[in-house]
Design goal:
Elements lengths: L22 E4 L9 E6 L18 E9 L9 E4 L12 E4 L2 E6 L2 H5 L7 E10 L5 E2 L7 E4 L8 E5 L2 E2 L5 E2 L12 E15 L2 E14 L7 E10 L4 E10 L15 E4 L6 E6 L6 E5 L13 E2 L5 E6 L8 E7 L2 E9 L1
Antiparallel strand pairs: 1-2, 2-6, 3-4, 3-7, 5-6, 7-8, 7-9, 10-13, 11-12, 13-14, 13-15, 15-16, 17-18, 18-21, 19-22, 20-21, 22-23
Length: about 350
């Protein structure tokens, strides 16, 4: 299971995060006939229920359903329980204090009434107030999804750094500089041989274990790739995530004759993009020309006065439209920009 950060395959930079996940569950690898205990932390995600009735409300409920092999996509919940906006006692979540709430499902398949032969892939959940006017979900507003595994499936997952339980799990922003370190934890569904790798180098191994941790030091800037590999004797499974550490910004004046916006070169095979962003520290250009990856090669130069960022793209095909966005201090800007 590969986790995605930010946009498409865009990677993550940004702020320090605590180890607590937005949605935690027990067991770590639930199957369709196991019980499932889900705990939400309303200080994270969209914070839709943050401090609601003091952060320890007796009026929090869940809306739940499942994604199965017959679902057509993330919004195609099946076997939905409860009616939205009603205080159904069976949907009531237990307050744990400190903006945390918990809900327990007894035997996932039986609870939802999913017939034999239909494969349950995810449990969908939204925590809400009684009227449904406020809800706790992911930071992008999407529903939360709890994976369900096969009864005999061997799986691994990276649990730390924390991630949001989007339809495709999303690693929360990571803040670390070269010379700093990050905490990484992986889990497995059964005792097995586990390996953690950073940028292709093994940083930790564990034999006959269902958990593994490491705190590696980051030695270089740009894209960092973390892999968890597990081998139970029958095969190897993997999980991974990537994040980005910006290098030192190059300070350089604007090329002669360029202005804010897009400046096309001769024969339209190149373009210099100029962004006005005073007070910002780092800007990276993303686009379909780079498969939406955050690359050091696409980090923009900064003018000496600190007001503008610029970069020149070459090798463009005249008449071809190129979609692009700016990643400004870890925030996406200009989502609809097109070079043509």
């Amino acid at each position: 299971m590969k986790k995605i950060c930010l946009l498409l395959s865009v990677l993550t930079i940004a702020i320090n995060v605590p180890a607590q996940r937005l949605l935690s569950w027990t067991p770590e690898f639930p199957v369709d006939n196991s019980n499932l205990v889900m705990t939400v932390d309303c200080t994270k995600g969209n914070q839709g229920l943050l401090n609601y009735e003091g952060g320890n409300s007796a009026n929090i409920y869940v809306h739940v359903g499942v994604i199965t092999n017959l679902s057509t996509g993330p919004t195609d919940w099946r076997y939905v329980k409860f009616t939205w906006g009603t205080p159904d006692v069976n949907a009531h979540a237990t307050p744990l204090g400190s903006n945390k709430y918990q809900y327990t499902i007894t035997n996932v398949r039986s609870f939802f009434g999913v017939p034999a032969g239909e494969t349950i892939r995810k449990v969908c959940v939204i925590f809400r107030n009684a009227s449904g006017s406020q809800k706790q979900v992911n930071s992008d507003g999407s529903d939360m999804y709890n994976p369900v595994y096969g009864n005999s499936e061997y799986a691994v997952r990276l649990n730390l750094p924390p991630f949001e339980p989007r339809y495709i799990p999303w690693i929360e922003p990571i803040n670390v500089n070269v010379g700093g370190s990050i905490s990484i934890t992986g889990v497995a569904s059964a005792n097995s041989n586990l390996t953690l790798k950073l940028n292709g180098n093994t940083i930790q191994t564990a034999s006959g274990s269902n958990t593994i941790s490491a705190t590696p030091t980051i030695t270089t800037a740009c894209t960092q790739q973390v892999f968890l590999e597990g081998n139970n004797g029958s095969g190897t499974v993997k999980d991974s995530f990537s994040f980005y550490i910006p290098p030192t910004v190059t300070v350089a004046p604007l090329p002669a004759g360029t202005v804010e916006g897009i400046n096309y070169g001769a024969n339209n095979t190149s373009a210099t993009l100029v962004l006005y962003a005073p007070g910002k520290n780092n800007v990276v250009l993303l686009g379909d020309f780079s498969n939406w990856a955050v690359l050091c090669a696409n980090q923009m130069n900064k003018t000496p006065d600190g007001n503008y960022f610029w970069i020149t793209l070459t090798g463009l095909v005249p008449g071809t439209e190129y979609a692009y966005q700016y990643l400004v201090d870890n925030s996406i800007s200009d989502p609809d920009a097109v070079i043509d």
